[in-house]
Amino acid sequence: MSTGKMFISHLCFLSLTSVFPLGRASVPVVINTWPFKDAAAAAWSVLRSGGSALDSVEKGCARCEIEHCDGSVGYGGSPDESGETTLDAMIMNGNTMEVGAVADLRRIKNAIGVARAVMELTEHTLLVGESASVFAENMGFIAEDLTTNNSVNIFLQWLKGNCQPNYRKNVFPDPSKTCGPYKPRTILKQKGRTRQANTRSHDTIGMIALDKDGHVAAGTTTNGLTHKVPGRVGDSPIVGAGAYADSSAGAAAATGDGDVMMRFLPSYLAVELMRAGADPSAACKTAISRIKRHYSEFFGAIICANTTGHYAAACNKAPGLSQFHYMVSNSESDIPLLKTVDCF
């Protein structure tokens, strides 16, 4: 089901959740960013059958990788400047504080699975680039082409548009007129180069789960920004930025302009605020406010849940984003429900 159809089908529910931003306590629970219903259902099916929070997060994120989730997750989306799709993912066990993450992953479709392999089969936390892909292949993951007709078309249209928009600045030749190659030029003025928020390019799913035993886990998976500079890594696979989990406090996951958000570790901050006694709504809002102080129009949102199963979300009001939609699955409804929060 498309995001637009989902929004219409849940319109009445959305009006209620805007008034009551703090979700009632219920354990177990799954919360994920954006209206990715199938991912929420996959994660909830694990918890409903008595499975672990860690398994729930992995299965939910993997579902998004399979379904492409608006083209922002998994293979066949967000080609970089060279036309290649690469993946980032992270998973965190809030019980043991173990983390596994991969970035700039090539050829492997199941990025969240590779991230878990890093956590469970190595003593490392983050593997990147070609070496991460080789590790995955050695661990039995199948090497496949991540390119699709859709990603090729996105790339070709970008080339026809003189490689605009892009994420270059202070370079020569002028990136508004050419595709490069690019060289540094400190005096180049970037007039009219303000990047606008694009809610159709939100570049990640973040998911948090609390199981019946009180164990918390969090994860992310993404194919990054469309037309990114090759090698770019955003907030998604960075611990404390894309997500964070601690079974003694709660969990959080962020989405949006990763290049800005990762500078503030919003997920870590939100969890620490909940540890200090803040409810999830206040924790989420404070984490967003910290970034907003420096980047008033940044594009971003965060979801939070504490150990009692209370949950909330917050978002920055920016061009193209006045409300943020997310999914919640718990025993109260036994099906994923679409929630919303007004941005501030």
Spatial order of the strands in the main sheet?
4-3-2-8-7-1-13-14
* Rg value: 19 Å
The number of domains: 1
Could you state the order of secondary-structure elements as H and E?
Answer: HHEHHEEHEHHEEEEEEHHHEEEE
Distance between the termini: 28 Å
The number of strands is 14
Mean pLDDT: 89
How much of the sequence lies in strands comes to: 15-25%
**Classification by helices and strands:** alpha+beta
Write down the CATH class: Alpha Beta
CATH architecture level-2 label = 4-Layer Sandwich
CATH homologous superfamily annotation: (Glycosyl)asparaginase
Q: What would the CATH topology be?
A: Glutamine Phosphoribosylpyrophosphate, subunit 1, domain 1
The gross shape turns out to be globular
Number of discrete helical segments: 10
Structure report:
The structure is a single chain. The protein is an alpha+beta fold. It has a single domain, classed as Glutamine Phosphoribosylpyrophosphate, subunit 1, domain 1. Helices cover 30% and strands 22% of the residues. The protein contains ten helices and 14 strands. The protein has an eight-stranded mixed sheet with strand order 4-3-2-8-7-1-13-14. It has a four-stranded antiparallel sheet with strand order 9-10-11-12. A hairpin with a 5-residue loop joins strand 7 and strand 8. The longest helix has 15 residues. The chain is globular, with a radius of gyration of 19 Å. The relative contact order is 0.18. Pfam families: Asparaginase_2. This is N(4)-(Beta-N-acetylglucosaminyl)-L-asparaginase. Cleaves the GlcNAc-Asn bond which joins oligosaccharides to the peptide of asparagine-linked glycoproteins. One of its GO terms (molecular function) is N4-(beta-N-acetylglucosaminyl)-L-asparaginase activity. Its EC number is 3.5.1.26.
